[in-house]
Design a protein that fits this description.
Length: 431
């Protein structure tokens, strides 16, 4: 989606319904009734005098009530959380206070329509609530339930208030904006992640990159896994239990992992099917769905490794939703920063080619094992790996669609669906 198209969608989401006012009580209608009254007096037409006087009186009351109705009416919102995954619920503690002597017969509270959030038990895109009789200096509080429906970063703090006279001949609407932002992370999927071999050494450059262990500090024992070193074999425990068991040693440094994401294969070509609008729409929808699915896989893998105590970093050549380049997140900086990047990223390339990843390699940021995600393994990816395979640590490529180059890297590359599991229980994140 282009930046202009995204801005149009955001503006459409922020639209609030127009106010409704009877034409008989518009701002300048009172002058019409005044002319009618003068004409009735001139011609001594008593019924018209009575009707005109009544309508002028009602117009004055309704106009004054309308203009004063929303003065010193103060809404407040407080989100119980500002970060959540798609499909998770959140709550807004809402309140409104009528801080003046004039009571309100009715007051409507509106959230503008947003595709990113659904409201209430019926999961509606538009939220509206009507309060009756908000008395002088009275405050009303209630809870609004919402659910994250679409990944991204959204301003949730725009509130529209409506009020007017008791008969609703006239009404006034004002919009209050609050600075609160809602970070909606990709949907978590049920995934199974492989464990790293305990023989690799973390934070050591080259092929031996991994983690160091203290051979004098044994954390425990576990069943043998392919790739375990025989020097870690626990002969006594194996003889006693009849199972092949190996020692688990205390790591000297924290385990770290870097995730790299090349978005170039997910960029939408707006001219791919110029002559067929239907094909173009299907093509754009498929690209967007693939992009969101891959982000869900990345988020799910990261959450799973984080629960295992592995610090996860992230870097991508994608753009921030505001148009600038995303910053790399080192593994030890914090998991929230990692997830924030997944909420902010869009399928636009900030830096073409593999130069960004070359720079990270030369700066020593790829000294730990890393996973490379892409739509398709290309010749550029293949040549980059061949050029640097003696300089990088343990690396795995995961792709969405097959190619000739994925076959050439078949020993270190797999399709992304290898992470998927039939377990219905989705990995849950924690902050």
């Amino acid at each position: 989606m282009s930046e202009q198209k995204q801005n149009r969608c955001e503006n459409k989401d922020n639209e609030l319904p127009l106010k409704e006012t009877s034409i008989l009580f518009e701002k300048y209608a009172i002058w019409f009734w005044l002319i009618c009254l003068l004409a009735a007096i001139w011609f001594s037409f008593l019924p018209l005098i009575a009707v005109s006087t009544l309508l002028i009186f009602i117009s004055l009351i309704t106009i004054i009530w309308k203009e004063k109705s929303l003065k010193n009416v103060n809404p407040e919102i407080e989100l119980n959380k500002t970060r959540l995954f798609v499909g998770e619920e959140f709550h807004i503690e809402a309140s409104v206070k009528n801080d003046k002597w004039l009571p309100l017969v009715w007051l409507e509270w509106e959230f503008p329509k947003k595709e990113a959030v659904v409201w209430g038990d019926h999961e509606q895109n538009l939220y509206t609530i009507r309060l009756l009789w908000l008395l002088w200096y009275q405050q009303v509080k209630w809870t609004i339930k919402g659910k994250g429906n679409k990944r991204g970063v959204y301003k949730i703090g725009q509130v529209g208030l409506r009020s007017g006279d008791g008969f609703r001949f006239t009404e006034k609407r004002i919009v209050h904006s609050f600075p609160e932002k809602l970070y909606i992370y990709p949907r978590l999927l049920p995934v199974h992640v492989p464990s790293f071999r305990s023989s690799i050494q973390w934070q050591i450059k080259g092929k031996q990159g991994g983690y160091l262990e203290d051979p004098l500090l044994v954390n425990g024992i576990r069943e043998y896994e392919p790739g375990d070193e025989w020097r870690k074999f626990n002969w006594k425990a194996s003889a006693r239990t009849g199972k092949m068991l190996t020692n688990v040693y205390q790591p000297v440094v924290n385990e770290q992992l870097f995730i790299l994401f090349d978005v170039s294969g997910f960029v939408i070509d707006n001219t791919a099917f110029q002559d067929n609008l239907l094909k173009q729409e299907k093509y754009e929808l498929k690209k967007s769905e693939d992009f969101e699915w891959v982000l869900s896989v990345i988020a799910s893998i990261a959450v799973a490794y984080q629960k295992q105590g592995v610090s996860v970093g992230f870097s991508s050549n994608g753009c921030h939703y505001k148009g600038y380049k995303l910053k790399s997140v080192p593994p030890m900086k914090g998991f929230l920063s990692f997830l924030d990047q997944l909420a902010e990223i869009i399928a636009q390339v900030s830096q073409k080619g593999m130069s960004m990843f070359d720079k990270m390699l030369y700066e020593g940021k790829l000294s730990h094992p890393f996973i490379f995600f892409c739509e398709t393994i290309t010749n550029e990816h293949y040549l980059w790996y061949k050029r640097h395979k003696h300089e990088i640590a343990l690396v795995s490529f995961y792709y969405l669609n097959d190619s000739d180059f994925s076959k050439k890297l078949k020993n270190i590359s797999k399709k992304m669906d290898v992470f998927m599991t039939t377990d219905s229980q989705v990995v849950k994140g924690s902050f």
